[in-house]
Amino acid sequence: MDYKRAISVRHSCRSYLPDTIDSSIVKKLQASITDYNLLSGLNIQLILNNGDAFGNFSKSYGMFSGVNNYIAMIGRANGIHEKEKIGYYGEKLVLEATEYGLGTCWVAGTFDKTACSCILGPREEIYCVISIGYPAAKKSFKDKLINSVMHTKKKPVEDFFDTRGNVPDWFLEGIKAVQSAPSALNKQPVKFAYTDESSDALPSVRAWITSNSSGVEQIDLGIAKLHFELGASDVEWEWED
Ligand SMILES: Cc1cc2nc3c(=O)[nH]c(=O)nc-3n(C[C@H](O)[C@H](O)[C@H](O)COP(=O)(O)O)c2cc1C
């Protein structure tokens, strides 16, 4: 999987064609979902040919058109590091789908949670969904509008880290991949710091959120940590804020 290429071409897609997703792609996505659920303890579900969660205009504000499929990002209610894991594994699926030529969009607000046709286990909740499908060639007026409002200039690289002095190239490559990460309202409320305190230990990187008002910043953090890992190449994260 060429995740780096996917990072460079991905953008949020809010207008979809009605076509069903090719069964060979569905199989591969299902296999990844099974793996990620085992690794994370999440209960991610792929919902196909059912757009009810996006059919209610008052909940979706008419921002989306043609959504027939989505990935329901489900985890334990109040589970430790749950939101971070949702971001990390959900974005892995987003980048995989991008490589298959599909469009995606993370959606935490503008959908109807009560109309989601997924099955929740005891003490589980839907944190958000990811719409998925073949992108429409012609974007809806609202889709164009949202993209022009949200896609202001990228935050400069320096705004993403708090480290004085020189940082190694691999750290900067990680930060560059974070620059292209999706985030709620495109706020990118994340920062990274590099430390290389002693010569006999491996250098370490810390990541944290810079605000906590919308309740989904930890999801943004999980997404940003995955992008950092893919950009910097040889990184292993712990689940920690
Ligand atoms: C956790 C999360 C929640 C989001 N919720 C919504 C949403 O409710 N509605 C929407 O239209 N876009 C939503 N987005 C998409 C962002 O607006 C989009 O990622 C951001 O504007 C950057 O644009 P890009 O993804 O094209 O790079 C969400 C993104 C994330 C990461």
Walk me through the topology.
Elements: H1 3-9, H2 23-40, E1 45-47, H3 57-60, E2 70-76, H4 82-99, E3 103-107, E4 124-133, H5 141-150, H6 169-179, E5 190-195, E6 204-209, H7 217-232
Helix pairs in contact: 1-4, 2-4, 4-7, 6-7
The protein binds flavin mononucleotide.
InterPro entries: Nitroreductase-like (IPR000415), TM1586_NiRdase (IPR029478)
Protein name: Nitroreductase
Keywords: Flavoprotein, FMN, Oxidoreductase
Question: Which key phrases capture this entry?
Answer:
NADH Oxidase, globular, 35% helix, 4-stranded antiparallel β-sheet, 241 residues, alpha+beta
How would you sum up this structure, described in words?
The protein is of the alpha+beta class. The protein folds into two domains: 3-146, NADH Oxidase; 152-232, putative nitroreductase (tm1586), domain 2 (NADH Oxidase, 3-Layer(aba) Sandwich). Helices cover 35% and strands 15% of the residues. The protein has seven helices and six strands; from the N terminus they run ααβαβαββααββα. It has helices spanning 3-9, 23-40, 57-60, 82-99, 141-150, 169-179, 217-232; strands at residues 45-47, 70-76, 103-107, 124-133, 190-195, 204-209. A hairpin with an 8-residue loop joins β5 and β6. α1 (3-9) crosses α4 (82-99), α2 (23-40) packs antiparallel against α4 and α6 (169-179) crosses α7 (217-232). The longest helix is centred in the N-terminal third of the chain and has 18 residues, at 23-40. It is globular. It starts with a helix and ends in a 9-residue tail after the last helix. The mean pLDDT is 90.
